[in-house]
Amino acid sequence: MTELRTESPVHVHTLLADAFAGLAMRDTVHWRITAARDNQLEAVSEEGVRVVFRVDGFRLDGIEKGPRRDVLSELCRVLYMERVRFPLMAAHPDGLSRTVMLVSSPNAVSVVPLPPPITTYLLWYLPKARRETVMGDLEEEYATVYRAFGKRKALLWYYTQVLTSFGPEVASKVRALAKWGAIGWVAEVIRQIIT
Amino acid sequence: MGDKKPYLGEFEEIVLLAILNLGTNAYGVTIRQKVEEVTGRSTSIGAIYTTLERLEDKGFIKSRQGEATPERGGRAKRYFDIQGAGSQALTDAERVRAQLRAGFQPAGGAA
User: Fold this and answer.
1) Rounded distance, CA A22 to CA A96, Å?
2) Would you tell me which residues 31-70 of chain B have a C-beta closer than 8 angstroms to some C-beta of chain A?
3) ipTM exceeds 0.95
């Protein structure tokens, strides 16, 4: 069991990174959240693997089905998307889990700043091929700007980046509208959703 | 009609050179920062990715999935590597520039 000392509010990503330090996180498994209750989150992977994340005080047990790094990576993503900021305990079917005990402490706080969620949702309009990478890049830089210049400048930087990211997308739609009218516009929107 | 080589725009050339400069650590964030640092111009991540996708379509660069980090919300990085065609395009652009520059005297320069 790994013990981490921290204090609230703390970001789960940082704790996970500390707990699994040195672990290569290269691949991502895609999960779909099927149910979210007060203390439980259920998800199913593309391969049909079902996972349940359960809240249990300050305990967090890593769950995995397949390589641990995939699950850790995905767990980070799920926690972020759901804005979960509390430790979780996940049921583990294969006995391969690693346990992390979180203990409150006045010292050793480590916080990863998150960009505003409403603006982040706008990025879902970007083409699928580019979306995840752009979101990741913006989030990484947001944290850097936040630490260097503070929240206000980080927010301003983030809003500007998100809005300017749409420039090429808007231009392609305007071109389609000018050429083909409303049908062209709809076709362009459908094309972006599919590709 | 001869072979038509893909055209390399000014911004495309800058991005390509940034990738070359960054080596194995060329992904969206570092490329954007490098371009800003060298040109002194504010550049959006959207503009960088539009250019990167165009360069990839032209066969100048190739992308590969990288690692996911907690700072990225568990999302994977996308690294870019320059390809042979990309190096050739840069060489060609440099050659054209050198040819055009031959005999050019900068304003205020020594005679």
Assistant:
1) 17
2) 32, 44-47, 49-50, 53, 65-70
3) no
Q: What is the CA A146 to chain-centroid distance, rounded? A: 18
pLDDT confidence tier of residue A58, bands split at 50, 70 and 90: very low
DSSP result, A131-163: HHHHHHHHHHHHHHHHHHH-HHHHHHHHHHHHH
Specify whether the CB–CB gap between B71 and A140 falls below 8 A. yes
Instruction: Give dist(CA A18, CA A12) in Å, integer.
Output: 10
Mean pLDDT of A148-175: 79
Query: pTM for the whole thing?
Result: 0.57
Residue B9 at interface with chain A, using a CB cutoff of 8 Å:
no
**Tokens read off for B76:** 């994977």
Interface-testing mutation among A14, A76, A111, with chain B (most B C-beta atoms within 10 A): A76
The answer to whether the beta carbons of residues B61 and A123 sit under 8 Å apart is no
Q: Phi/psi zone of residue B74: left (φ > 0), alpha (ψ -120 to 50 degrees), beta?
A: left
> Min CA distance, A40 vs chain B (Å)?
20
| Cis geometry, peptide bond prior to residue A113 (ω within 30 degrees of 0) | no
Which residue in B19, B63, B55 sits closest to B38, CA to CA?
Answer: B19
The answer to whether A135 contacts B73, with C-beta atoms less than 8 Å apart, is: yes
Which of A18-32, A155-169, B41-55 is most confident? Answer: B41-55
Q: Of all helices (H) and strands (E), which one includes residue B62?
A: strand B61-68
